[in-house]
Amino acid sequence: ADLTISCGAVGAELQLCKEAVEAWSKQTGNNVEVVSTPNSATERLSFYQQILSAQSTDIDIIQIDMVWPGMLAKHLMDLREVLPANATQGYFQAQVDNATVNGRLVTMPWFTDSGLLYYRKDLLEKYNKQVPQTWEEMTTTAREVQQAERTAGNPNAWGYVFQGRAYEGLTCNALEWISSQPEGGLVNPQGDIVVNSPASRAALTLAKSWVGDISPRGVLNYTEEEGRGVFQSGNALFMRNWPYVWALVQSQGSVVKDKVGVAPLPRGGTTGTHASTLGGWGLAVSRYSAHPELAAQLVSYLTSAQQQKHRALSAAYNPVIESLYQDPELLAAMPYYSQLHSILNDGVMRPASITADRYPRVSNAFFDRVHGVLAGELPVDQALAELESELTRIKRRNW
Ligand SMILES: OC[C@H]1O[C@H](O[C@H]2O[C@H](CO)[C@@H](O)[C@H](O)[C@H]2O)[C@H](O)[C@@H](O)[C@@H]1O
């Protein structure tokens, strides 16, 4: 092949990537190999770190998580050197800023993500329940409906599924639980470590109570797709997941088609705020690519407005080009688009830009402790104290 691109393989994204790459290959006559990757963003990062540290020429284009630019920048091309000067015109400035490290555009933003609460409209109606506004309300409703559904003959009914494996997805979930509590947070914008707090204690204590009650114990090993599997087969009332799930639960043949609603994630108590972790991915060209200009052309095609619109319409990947949020066709096709704006406003950033290449350590320390709590292996107070001292150690060495 002339080029190799490594795309994610969660939900329909590998298929979408292959189709777009094929279209470009036909147009340009270049051969491209598409390499798939593990579902867990954490495993994917280790894979890329190995390849890039070895300065391997095997992969030209890499799908980059929005928390990776700082740590991978030294291995990535400055796309400004190969793309037209107006390449990022019309993109959200925050996306371009996040993709720029020391003045170098190391990744082209592709789509943005935010955590959402998916719920079963039909079940809430059946049991005369409201979409929950707080985590406490979510817990009570989940428990009641789960019990009622089991009594009604579904032994596999569950209240809530989420990403509980010890990986980046759990960092995203736990950050939401904590940040939605009054005064809750992990690291504040000034870089102070604020995680050992009553807010975190309340959030983690409640989350721990879900496991084995409203969430199957298996949730301790769930990434995005395992939770979607349970929800899409009709066995969960609530699910925390990303927007891509919308297109799949609504697809032909889905057991829950037309039975699903989407809402902001609950607040922590009545004085908390809705919080939704911001995610999203871009496409980067490896500095070790033997064909950087050609690779940049493919990146430019894949991240074009036309492709972003297609991906939004067919698979619910949210564009990073501002004008697409006024596109009538997109507005008509995406019922939750009107809510998306406020959900994105409640967006919580992981502390990746502050911690740069130490971010994986920070995130690993966080998800490991949270996982220990959820698994019942670590008392909440001990987990938070350990986390605080570990983050302090990492910070002392300049993050
Ligand atoms: O929404 C589709 C994407 O879901 C995953 O990425 C999101 O979750 C990651 C944590 O698990 C987070 O780090 C990332 O910023 C989010 O966008 C999945 O890893 C992607 O492949 C997928 O496209």
From TrEMBL:
GO CC terms in record: periplasmic space
Subcellular location: Periplasm
InterPro entries listed in its UniProt record: Bact_solute-bd_prot1, SBP
Keywords, ordered alphabetically: Signal, Transport
Pfam families: SBP_bac_1 (PF01547)
Source superkingdom: Bacteria
Record bears the keyword Translocase: no
Main localization category: periplasm
Family: Belongs to the bacterial solute-binding protein 1 family.
The protein, known as: ABC transporter substrate-binding protein
Species of origin: Pseudomonas kielensis
